[in-house]
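Open question from group meeting: does this chain pack into something compact, or does most of it stay loose? Before anyone orders reagents, we agreed to write out a predicted structure and look at it together. Recording both the input and the output here so the notebook holds the full record.
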Amino acid sequence: MKSKELFCISKSNCVFFGSFNKTTAIYGPNNVGKSCLIKCIQAMKDILLNKKVKLTSNLFSNNSICELGITFLYRDMKYSYDIKYDTKLNQFIYESLTSKDIILYKRDLLNQIFDCKDEETKKFMFYMVSDNVLFHVMNTEYMKNIKDVFVSFAHTMDIISTTQWNGSSGAEKLIFLLKHIEPQRILIVDNLDDGLDFRVVNLILEMSTSSQLIFVVMLVYL
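Structure tokens returned:
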């Protein structure tokens, strides 16, 4: 996951969640950007699912352009998707999707670059609106297939926050989720230790590391 000039993140930020790690913990003091990372992941998921764009440029700079990128595996294929969004213009000014170093499509409005592996799609890219990503506004068979990949991947991510939970009910909900999570899903939990007894947190981590499922747990110490 890559991000830059987004929410409280100013410099380029890259976080790797390997599928061989069944549990990943992110921890640190208050106001260092842990929850901002979760917001970035949620924002990317919303974009992939064609939900309302909720991107805010960095609070401490005058740059209105924020950047997001994600690299993921889907059906043994590796994809890398990068976007740039102008929060003043409310436009996606840059999109690029690659796989195996091959450009599947690229739209760069600033440099007027419109490239695509599929010639039929390439002919119409210039005329497409920029208030949404291309695979949600183009109806070519090529883009429909790309959309299917993105939507299917986005649906594998479950993002929750324990902020509104109390200790006992929160622990019960998390344990239930871990017991019933499906294979190949990604579970992202913000504020895992918020109001939870550390013995419960350790139990949750023990359950996750002994499981054969693949998921990510965000462990945030306040």
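Observations to bring back to the group:
DSSP finds six helices and nine strands in the chain.
Strands lie at 2-4, 13-14, 65-74, 77-86, 91-99, 102-108, 113-116, 157-161, 186-190.
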